[in-house]
UniProtKB/TrEMBL annotation:
UniProt name for this protein: Phosphotransferase
Keyword Electron transport included in the entry's annotation: no
Domain Hexokinase C-terminal: 208-441
Entry annotated with the keyword Methyltransferase: no
């Protein structure tokens, strides 16, 4: 008779991507990237490849005091950054964005941001100064310039009304003007992937890809300006940063051939159904829930926990993505963290075989995520076709998952064309420092122009 363990392994096979499937994913993504860049194909493209208007990477000579805002990850932060020769000094504060603000009106969101900013300036004795600000806004933006960006869609649980289709920089400026107490020059708006790239490029000039595997998933890269058919900025510079917004990959069904019933359920229960399909298979906002859905299925089949679940196990959102990292941090054969997680979920009746199975499901979900990210990065590396590229990386999943880095490095190495090398580089707070750097580079340019 087949053992429960074997059936569990068979059931989890749907989460395994074969090399053939991964290659197919790469080829589909490549086509989508090309469509996003093309003048005639962009309007109907799924992976938008937004132009960022960032053409100059930092040269290490940026100096000065800057404010930065970071909205779109797990937290909202305000930062003040002093860039000096070969060092920077940074102070920041995290502010909560309560759920009613995440899903309320855009005006309320921007008023909240402006209020946090003013309070922060008071606390840091710069209330009366006129400072330059870089705004990291990590949602799909159609940029019309360095300080103009039209929100295309909300992602990651945000749904503030009246913002989609509007210029986000203007929204913030209006909120600051409504208060009338602080003087701010918004010098640049940017994505967290571009911030990550910029903050790594400050130290390593070879950094040409920025990757986020956090609450959401996305990457940006340096493209040849001549390939960016929609670019209407200053001519003459060879490179341009492209924000791929690859989290939307699959929104037209391109990933249906590998999606599972768990992916479909996560999507059905989300506030942006049918959107961000690749992101929902990868990122921290969804990974724990994917594991939970698989565990629920196995429990109902009588293969786990003696067929006896718990209220929490059956409750949506109760299996946090950090549990996946914790469970996989246990040494092989040790289930200390796994046991703690299962106890928290009211599953203290789990046997050792159950714990091994839970770990197996976590591994399948996170390995698939790492392989999907690898497919994306390898696709970009092959497209760029440079002998050696540094990839700046940030995000909670990449930082805290014990094996994500290794899984990714191994897979990318298999998928890139022979002769292409890559160096992963952990970003030091790309969203914060990167925002200041983009602002600093923008100031550097405007002062050169003046
Ligand atoms: C957003 C991207 C962002 C990514 C990582 C996605 O949901 O659309 O703009 O870069 O999350 O934060």
């Amino acid at each position: 008779m087949r053992q429960a363990r074997d059936v569990i392994r068979e059931e989890s096979e749907v989460l395994h991507l074969t090399d053939k499937q991964i290659k197919e994913i790469m080829s589909r993504l490549h086509n989508d990237l090309v469509k996003g860049l093309g003048k005639d194909t962009h309007a109907n493209s799924i992976v938008k490849c937004w132009i960022t208007y960032i053409q100059d990477l930092p040269n290490g000579k940026e100096r000065g005091k800057f404010l930065a805002l970071d909205l779109g990850g797990t937290n909202f932060r305000v930062l003040i950054i002093n860039l000096g020769a070969n060092h920077f000094d940074m102070q920041s504060k995290i502010y909560a964005i309560p759920n009613h603000i995440m899903t309320g009106s855009g005006v309320a969101l921007f008023d909240h941001i402006a209020e946090c900013l003013a309070n922060f300036m008071k606390e840091h004795d710069v209330y009366a100064e006129r400072l330059a600000l870089g705004f990291t806004f990590s949602f799909p933006l159609q940029q019309l310039g360095l300080t103009k960006g039209i929100l295309q869609r909300w992602t990651k649980g945000f749904s503030c009304s009246g913002v989609v289709g509007e210029d986000v920089v203007q929204g913030l400026k209006d909120a600051i003007a409504r208060r009338g107490d602080v003087q701010i020059d918004i010098c640049a708006i940017q994505n967290d992937t571009t911030g990550t790239l910029m903050s790594c490029a400050w130290k390593n000039h070879n950094c040409k890809i920025g990757l986020i595997v956090g609450t959401g998933s996305n990457a940006c890269y340096v493209e040849k300006t001549e390939n960016c058919e929609l670019f209407d900025g200053e001519p003459g510079k060879p490179d341009l940063l492209i924000n791929t917004e690859w989290g939307a990959f699959g929104d037209d069904g391109a990933l249906d051939f590998v999606r599972t019933e768990f992916d479909r359920e996560v999507d059905n229960n989300s506030i942006n159904k049918g959107k961000q399909i690749q992101e929902k298979m990868i990122s921290g906002m969804y990974m724990g829930e994917l594991v939970r859905l698989a565990l629920v299925k196995l429990t109902k089949m009588g293969l786990l926990f003696g067929g006896r679940g718990s209220d929490l196990l059956f409750q949506r959102g109760s299996f946090y993505t950090k549990y996946v990292s914790e469970i996989e941090s246990d040494k092989p054969g040790d289930f200390t963290s796994c046991m703690e997680v299962l106890e928290e979920l009211g599953l203290s009746h789990a046997s050792e075989a159950d714990m091994a199975a839970v770990r197996h499901v976590c591994e399948c979900v996170s390995r698939r995520a790492a392989h999907l990210v690898s497919a994306g990065i390898a696709c970009l590396l092959n497209k760029m076709n440079e002998p050696r590229v540094t990839v700046g990386i940030d995000g909670s999943v990449y930082r805290f998952h014990p094996h994500f880095h290794t899984l990714m490095c191994e897979k990318i190495a298999q998928l890139v064309r022979p002769g292409i090398q890559f160096d992963p580089m952990l970003s030091e707070d790309g969203s914060g420092r990167g925002a200041a750097l983009v602002a600093a580079v923008a100031c550097r340019q405007s002062s050169t122009v003046a």
